[in-house]
C-alpha cells in the first residue's frame, strides 16, 4: 500500500505554516505554500492511522453491532482549532489522525479501554487519557479519548520508523453517545452554527445539554454538573418545554428534507471522500481502493482547495456505504435517530 511520506520540513517550519493559515490571506503565495506543508503533515498520519485501525477492528470484532471508522482531520477544522487555541502548534495537535469505535454499552467501552491499557504487545505510548463519560464536557459531550504516540517496535516493515512520534487519537463511545455527538454537528451544519466549538444559539445548546444528561441517565452514568441537583423527570420536562418553544423536531426535519440526493462514484470502496454541499443539501462520494490512499489524499487536498464555505470535504474510511452513514451521519445530514429519542422523551413525560 502506498502512503504519503513524512515531510522533510522541521517542526518549526510546520508550526509556522500553521500560523500562516490563521494569519494570512488565502490568496497570498505564502498561504498557498503553507497549505501544501500542512497537507503533507496531515497526509503522513495515514500510515500510523492504518496501523491503529487494524488493531482496533480486531479488538471490537467480538462486540455485536460495533463500528470502526477513521479519518484525517479536515483542513478548515485544523485552521479553526489553531485560531481558537493561540498557544497550540500544528505539530502538537493530537487528533489530526483520528479513529473511532462505536459499541453498544458503556461496559463495552470500558472493556476496550482497559484492553488497550493492559496489552503488553501494544507498544505505542499513551500520551493522554480523557474520560468524558465520568466527567462529561460542559456542552454534554461524552466518550473516552486515548491519545497515543506512534512507536511500533513490532512492525515488520522498516518504514514504520519514519512515522515515529506521530500522535493518533482513539475515541471510544457508545451508540447513544455517538447519536448525540453527531447530532450536534449535523444540526450545527444545517443551521450554519458551530455548536461543537461553543458558539451558536444558547437555547439549542441548552437542549443538547439536557439531552446529554437524559442519555446519561439511560446509561446509568453521571449527568452534567448543572443538572446534578435535578431529578430525572425534571430534566425530561425541561426538554419537553424547550423543544416546544423551539419547535426543534419539526424545524430540523424541515432543514434536512432536501438532503436525500447522494451521488456515489466507485461503490464499495475502502477510502471515501465525502463532499457535502450544505446549501443544496447534496452529497457526493468519491471512492478509492485500499491500495490507493496516496491518490485519495491528493484528491482530498485538491477538493478542499476548490471548496467554498458552502462545502464540507472529508476523507474517511468506514467500509460499506451503510457503515459510512452510521459512522458519519453528520456528513449525510442524518439526525433521525436523535430526533426519535427526543420524541420518545417528550411522549413519556
Properties at a glance:
45% helix; 9 strands; 349 residues; nine-stranded mixed beta sheet; globular; alpha+beta; 12 helices; Beta Polymerase, domain 2
Task: Give a structural overview.
This protein is 45% helix and 17% strand. By secondary structure, it is α+β, with helices and mostly antiparallel strands. Strands 3-4-5-2-1-9-7-8-6 form a nine-stranded mixed sheet. Helix 1 (11-23) crosses helix 2 (29-43), helix 1 packs across helix 4 and helix 6 (175-191) packs antiparallel against helix 7 (202-218). The protein is globular. It starts with 10 loop residues before the first helix and ends with a helix.
Structure annotation, total helices: 12
Number of spatially distinct domains: 1
- Main beta sheet, described? 9 strands, mixed
Briefly, what CATH class?
A: Alpha Beta
The name of the CATH topology is Beta Polymerase, domain 2
